[in-house]
Predict the 3D structure of the following.
Amino acid sequence: MLHLAEYRNRPHSLADFLPWAALVEKGVILNKDGAFQRTARFRGPDLDSATAAELVGVTARLNNALRRLGSGWAIFVEAQRIAAQTYPHNTFPDAASALVDLERRDAFEESGAHFESRYFLTFVWLPPAEDASRIEGWLYEGRAQSGVDPHELMRGFVDRTNRVLQLVEGFMPEVAWLADSETLTYLHSTISTRQQRVRVPETPMHLDALLADEPLAGGLEPRLGSHHLRTLTVVGFPTATHPGILDELNRLAFPYRWSTRAILLDKTEAVKLLTKIRRQWFAKRKSIAAIVKEVMTNEASTLVDSDAANKAADADLALQELGTDDVGQAYVTATVTVWDEDPGLAAEKLRLVEKVIQGRDFTCMPEGVNALEAWLGSLPGHAYANVRQPPLSTLNLAHMIPLSAVWAGPDRDEHFRSSPLFFGKTEGSTPFRFSLHVGDVGHTLIVGPTGAGKSVLLALMAIQFRRYRKSQIFAFDFGGSIRTAALAMGGDWHDLGGSLSNSAEDSVSLQPLARIGDAAECGVGRPIRTIGHIVNRRMPAAIAIPN
């Protein structure tokens, strides 16, 4: 279906370049070249809270999952930087909490645009040619049908991807397959500047025409709709990598698509390719003149190209790692795409991305003549455009992909079925949605040095809690730090210890062990009375009742 000669001589719309054909199973896309495609969303660990050992372990386990895939497989890892949701609208029952929330809303909106990242992992598998499948069928007897069974191929693809994702689930905080509507919405977000949900049609065919809603103009500076596209491609890599090496991209304050495509290789193909690379670099150690001199004088040349020798040794080390099944090999293409209606702003965004990437010792190139091919190669499922060589190990790939994520908190407080308790700000331009509840449990402990703001945080939590219907405030306070906030909201404030109360009746004293020896008070019989006698004998001051 990618071959259009039967219908017209040249492609004339964006739909002609897209690889997607039909939705054939839950979350499974059939591409025009016969490949199957499936996408999962995930969120990796936060670098600010994860230890170095944890990150090394995560990348090692991800490498273990990726190296199991061979030729015919491709993975697309994409990070989308999108505008964060706006400040929530809630009704507060009192003037004090409403004024505080109004000030917080103004501060949130005046601090500039807020962005958060979404992460997607797409698996693409191209089944073997029919000739290979037909030869494989000769090895079996008693099959119900001969030839290629497409349903069996699809079931095999679903089973294999489920197994790989189960390996990923063990070390990712969040990972799940996308449903049908979520899959179409994600694919639409990669080819459109409009953020909207896409419903599944009754006949989920011709997805290329269904999802393309903006015209694409090629050239040195492509345009998608009214927005100018700018694409940056990584063409050179550092000599060593570490987990989350490009995590700084997660803190940029503008929308972008950071896509990493890996076309995986079987072990046999990878060995053949690395052997060829090693032989080429080994041959470059000595020039032709040096070789002729060695033959004429029968003496070995002492001067060799050290750079070529080091690269030959590096290729030999890669062969050793491949031979022990520590890593796999893949053709990796990493691109970052930005857009804006103003071409100058789009170019400025690209310069900021280039600054971050080159600051990590990568070599990158703003695309010009190859701009359209580079953008097409970043689309999930498009494994033919902008293929970069030489190969890269799956461990280096695990270091490069957008694995880490700045955690922005849950979108909703599911216990109250409402917005989070309050909005804060974390690294870069990412907002933080603060919510106390995990399920229906809201236990919270706040620890910090003296004067760090623990009491202010508690007062803010109490004020923002008034956004929920039928909320009430009960404050047991020592020192009066929350007194003003509680009384302004009409809450119930209690002076713990009586340091601010004029009379004993207004104060509250907590003595949980005062009547521990009273069986009627405890209601649990002789064992409690025995414990009470022991406590009275050994710690009388702890249970004494003041007059």
User: Anything to note?
Assistant: Confidence is low (pLDDT under 50) at residues 538-547. Residues 150-169 form the longest helix (20 residues).
